[in-house]
Amino acid sequence: MENKNEAITRQEDDFAQWYTDVCRKAELMDYSSVKGFIIYRPYGYAIWEEIQKYLDQRFKAIGTENVYMPLVIPESLFNKEKEHVEGFAPETLIATIGGKNELDDRLIIRPTSEVLFSEHYSKIIKSYRDLPKIYNQWCSVVRWEKTTRPFLRGSEFLWQEGHVMFASAEEARKNVLDILEIYNDLGRDVLAIPFVKGRKTDKEKFAGAKETYSIEALMPDGKALQSGTTHYFGTDFAKAFNVVYQDKDGSLKSPHQGSWGVSTRLLGSIIMVHGDDNGLVLPPFVAPIQVVIIPIQMAKEGVMKKCHEIYKIVKKLNLRVKMDDSDHTPGWKYAEYEMKGIPLRIELGPRDIEKDQVVIAKRNTGEKIFVKIHDLEEKIPELLKSISEEMYERAFKYLLDHTTEVKSMDELNKALEKGGYAKMMWCGEEACENKIKELTTATARCLPFNQTAFSDVCPVCGKKATKVVLFAKAY
RNA sequence: CGGGAUGUAGCGUAGCUUGGUAUCGCGUCUGCUUUGGGAGCAGAAGGCCGCAGGUUCAAAUCCUGUCAUCCCGACCA
Questions:
Q1: What CA–CA distances, in Å, run from A34 to A10, A38, A144, A267?
Q2: Pseudo-torsion of CA A306, A311, A312, A315, nearest 10°?
Q3: Which residues in range 293-312 of chain A are in contact with strand B, contact meaning CB within 7 A of any of its atoms?
Q4: Sign for the pseudo-dihedral over CA of A266, A269, A275, A279
Q5: Cα-based torsion angle of the residue sequence A222, A228, A229, A230 in order, rounded to the nearest 10 degrees
Q6: A271-310 pLDDT, tens digit each
Q7: Between vectors from CA A213 to CA A209 and to CA A219, what angle results, nearest 5°?
Q8: Cα–Cα distance between A122 and A459 in angstroms, integer?
Q9: A265 touches strand B (CB under 7 A)
Q10: What does A415-468 look like in DSSP terms, one character per residue?
């Protein structure tokens, strides 16, 4: 029987409310008493930990070392890089009192750590032998946001920030593109999210960066969500912070710098891309619980015993498994674990025991299948893999269906109305970019790496267009 | 930060116009019966009505401020 109080808002009724409902009912987070600062509850934090595991291992495989930098940056230091400061100044949180005294040099709670890394690098990089430096830190940062939403935009969020120094521009650029590829792999293989890889326009790039690259995900409400970025800085930052090394030939040079990061915003992507009206749908490889076992008629002879056997079989596969032997009814448990997005549910009762089988329900499709117990060992890993692929395919199809090539302002408007990306040829002028934003509120998400031209006229100004650009409304 | 809406038990709510010690459902706890899609019966606990001031003999209700959440803009990962 439908229990209205347990249900969440339907997506089609109010997508934003659905999102918030899922965040709370799936116990991913809770609000704290300070605006924009959320509590990452165990279930939500565990997803982040899985993301961390994957990325940390990939980062280290290409020579990255983890470090930890201070939480605070003296204002005087922060102000060294002009363009960067202008980008962040409006959203910094500043500590002004230490103990009982006003601070002479106020302390900025890091909104990002470019300047701390740069300052440190100026001390430890002296010779070409000290390069490259590929450092990363896992931490939280604070940005005083005006409007906040769980995971999507918080005043504090968790992330990793890589800050790298190389002797040459080529190496630095290669590093930030390699990392972008790792982010993309994370999406494809782990999160089941198809990202669009591309370069940001000058207008949209990071404060102080020469080049900014991003991975963009498309949400079911038609809005794009930037899910990760990498930046190439050139030598400007290094120069501002006096990072100088002596090269083999004895000359003094500035290294080429890059940075890259993904944040807990990825959880927002996961929730929206895959979720449905029954709640969360987690990609199998980040699900904190991958398989849940529900005993049916627990009091009946042999049921619990058989459930424990199944538990052991799944555990042995190195999977994250939970058995729920609480006294809730099976129906309650089904709904509960659907809300939590657990990829596979195993139901086991007297009827199954007779047939030496279990019932397996797939969260992503709702499909129920019967599997003989002796086949479980082989079948479960297969199912998890195919679920991940099905989820990716579904999201990819949505992405394709909502990427529309447009050749006129009229088509652009229609494409944005439908939701998703309006793909157009662009002359490269910021004026045209601004005009689209003014008329539609959509922004240039990126110049996708796939630059297959399909016209040579900019629909805004009518001049010659050479670049493929994706416009969309964004989070 | 501008415009709009909303805050009453863990969740969802009634009451507010016309001030007088807070309603109902779900959840929680106990017991028994149950268990293949959010179980049934019986009993119980749980609230300084978001917070802070003010008006009043008396404030959930009226006034001011503030905080939070949601929506629409501007800004940003």
A1: 28, 8, 11, 21
A2: 170
A3: 296-299
A4: positive
A5: -150
A6: 999 999 899 999 999 999 999 999 999 989 899 999 999 9
A7: 130
A8: 47
A9: yes
A10: HHHH-SEEEEEE---HHHHHHHHHHHS-EEEEEES------SB-TTT-SB--EE
CB A116 within 8 A of CB A73: yes
Residues 6+ apart with CB under 8 A from A290: A284, A319, A320, A321, A342, A343, A344, A384
Closest residue to B73 measured CA to C1′: A441
Give me A188's structure tokens: 């494809």
pLDDT single digits (tens) A215-242: 999 999 999 999 999 999 999 989 999 9
Average pLDDT on A109-129 reads: 94
Q: How far is the CA of A306 from the C1' of B11 (A)?
A: 36
Q: How is A243-299 classified by DSSP, letter by letter?
A: --EE-TTS-EEPPEEEEEEEETHHHHHHHHHH-BTTB----TTT-S-SEEEEESSTT
Closest C-alpha among A264, A273, A278, A202 to residue A432: A202
What is the rounded CA–CA span in Å between residue A280 and residue A275? Answer: 5
- Enumerate the nucleotides of strand B whose atoms come under 7 Å of any protein CB: 1-2, 10-12, 25-27, 34-39, 67-77
A427 touches strand B (CB under 7 A): no
**Which residue lies nearest B36, CA-to-C1' measured?**
A296
**Residue whose C-alpha is closest to residue A36's, from A139, A152, A206:** A152
Range list of H helices, A294-406: 303-316, 330-339, 350-355, 376-401
Q: Which residue is nearest to nucleotide B2 (CA to C1')?
A: A146
Kindly report the backbone phi and psi dihedral angles of residue A183, in degrees, each rounded to the nearest multiple of 5, phi listed first: -60, -40
Complex-level ipTM: 0.80
Q: pTM here?
A: 0.94
What are the tokens at A89? 């100044």
| Sequence letter at residue A442 | A
* Measured distance CA(A98)–CA(A380) in Å, rounded: 56
| Distance (Å, whole) CA A144 – CA A65 | 29
